[in-house]
Amino acid sequence: AHREPWSLREGDFSKARKRLEPKPLSIERTKGSEILFGIAPCALALSQSRRDLFRLFLKQSSGSRRLVTSEFVLQATARGVPVHHVKRRELDALCRGRVHQGVCLEATPLRFKSLEEAEKPNLGDGENPNRQLIWLVLEQIQDPMNLGAVLRSAYFLGVDRVVTSQRNSCPLTPTVSKASSGAMEVFDIYSTDDLRSFLKAKTAEGWEVVGTVSKPEDVENVPVISCLEFRWNKPVIIVIGSEGDGLSLETQLLCHRMLAIPPGRALHPGIESLNVSVATGILLHSICSQKLRHSD
To answer: Which of 97, 177, 225, 232 could share a disulfide with 184, CB 3.0–4.6 Å?
Structure first.
């Protein structure tokens, strides 16, 4: 009989304590800005001149994190960016609970570049007419984590240019930058609203267009080979399809060849393919390693 009143009093105390706790500071965003989060994206955005930067938010810290904080303060000061030291809850609210590692940066968004802005690639001269260039084309990649991971691999492995289709593709968001470990901040990403015409034009210029497929038996009218057998001696475009459907039939028919990754065992039904970012990393390593060998 005495336990119930005590339970009620304990609940009342808990509610009162929550009311006394200060609410997270509400930070009003600059119009047209977004919040970058994470050490690598924020540090690289500060080091480049590709965004307008408004405010840097750092977690109030002590001990080992002070060195990281002081480096960010130096970077921000050099760029004339105001620095605000806030509590973790404020950072959590700014980036909506994502993993910020104690750093958020308010900045203007990055946009895709149009192909009209791109410098014409150097395809070599009479002595070296077949300079090995590799471009990566993404058709309707929609998941920001996948796009970020693809950009990170493309940057690391030496892809010369990345082009995405405008339609049904993920924009260059802070989540993409975080998943790319900041590669998006230093790597120009291009976009086209007419992927078919773009591929036809590159074919006419002498490029080889190579598609990718997870199930070779699904492809008709285009030869399919293992990525381990692929050899190239002229500029090449690797085309990656969407997470669910892969390459559209129209795009497949514009490819000279299709590449597949051979599995290492008999696969159980239902797990017969790889995540698109993992598959892209494997394919690019296989192809780009030839580029490195030829340049030695």
So the answer is: 177
